[in-house]
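Need the bound structure for NAP, inputs here:
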Amino acid sequence: MHTRALGPFKVSAIGLGCMPMSMNNDNEYPDRADAVATIHAALDAGVTLLDTADIYAPSWDTFGHNEELVAEALRTYGTLPDGLVVATKGGITRGPGEQWGRDGSLEYLRTAVEGSLRRLGVDVIDLYQWHRPDRSMDYAEVVGHFRTLADEGKVRCVGISNANIEEIRIAQDVLGDGGLVSVQNEFSPRYRASEDELRYCAGQGIAFLPWSPLGGTGGGGRSVGEEFPAFAEIAADHGVSPQQVVLAWELALSDRVIPIPGARRAESIVDSAAAADLVLSAEEVSRCSATADEN
Ligand SMILES: NC(=O)c1ccc[n+]([C@@H]2O[C@H](COP(=O)([O-])OP(=O)(O)OC[C@H]3O[C@@H](n4cnc5c(N)ncnc54)[C@H](OP(=O)(O)O)[C@@H]3O)[C@@H](O)[C@H]2O)c1
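Answer from helper R.:
Posting the output first, comments after.
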């Protein structure tokens, strides 16, 4: 499996988005053993980046479900691969009656990070990402709270998510040289609006983690080849799945891009992981970009 830089880490060029196993638009969940088997299959395939979040859970009262699942899968795997990175997120709240909110206060984030550390069963979180801006607060102030968590040794690296270029610049300012390790924004053939952020990160040496890189749960990821036939045509030429071509196209946009395709089924992540080794010609990359532009 090819690797890419993620701050001080070197991780597989394709990560595993663990969310669908605990939260998805189909509202269909694998049983525990199948979910653990999916994470094990990802590790077997050479995946060394797992993305989770404290809010990924089937319901508000199972908050932390996905982090606990990741921890269980890692505990039961045997010898873990060198350089395995578990990335999680905080800053979104989820309470009784499915009330969702945001909280960027230091007090809340300290509690959130303690919860993630406990559920993941680790002393320090490899990569802690601010999940979504709390627009009621000053962006720089909240990023400063993430820096505090890093200074306190609870978090090794800091990333942000759902951020525009102005916010990325603020985070760079607050975190200092090399302090902002990653930006995780939605990006896929059906969602190109964050391409400016992707390009900006590429120029700054910041890892860009496309979320819902295939088009999301609820059918988007599964039907990407039907929605965007050029990916399916190129896939047929290579004898691979359209999903692999989508991920290879994203990888070709910049060596800072590390897609995190989600999966409930082991077959999905095993197939997606193989995209790290799929090389597209410049002409194929242009065709992919053009077809995505048309939509
Ligand atoms: N930061 C944020 O705000 C944010 C928001 C949303 C998501 N995320 C992160 O991004 C990750 C990925 O996004 P996502 O899960 O929403 O969407 P996605 O990766 O675009 O698509 C996942 C869907 O595609 C299917 N799939 C995956 N690989 C496949 C393959 N090779 N062939 C056929 N089908 C395949 C999966 O099927 P099966 O489930 O049947 O295996 C699943 O239904 C999440 O897991 C999460 O970690 C972050």
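Comments: The chain has a mean pLDDT of 96. Residues 17-20, 51, 131, 161-162, 184, 188, 211-217, 221-222, 241, 243, 260-265, 268, 271-272 surround NAP (CB under 6 Å).
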